[in-house]
Amino acid sequence: MNSLRVRLPLLFLAGIALAGVITTVIAIQLFRSFAHDQALTSLNREASGVAALFSNAVEASYGNPEDRSPPRFAAKNLELATGDKIYLVGPRIFPGQENVTGLKRLPIQTIDWQSGKSLTFEFTPPGADRSYLAVATPIFLGKTSVGAIVVATKTTDVSQQVNDLIKRLALAGLLGLVAAALLAWYLSRRIVKPVLQLSAAADGVAEGNYAVSVPANAPGELGHLSERFSEMTDRLAEVEVMERNFLMSVSHELRTPLTAIRGHISALLEGVVDDPELEQLSLETVEAEATRLERLVGDILDLAKLDTHRFTVTREEVDMGTLLDQAFETYRDEARRRDIDYRQELSERPVITSDGDRVLQVVGNLLSNAFRATPDGGSIELSLAQVNGSVQVAVQDSGPGIAPEARDRLFRPFVSDSTGGTGLGLAIAKELSAALGGRIELESEPGHGARFQLVLPAR
Question: Could you say which of 132, 293, 335, 414 would form a disulfide bridge with 257 (CB–CB 3.0 to 4.6 Å)?
Answer without folding.
Answer: 293
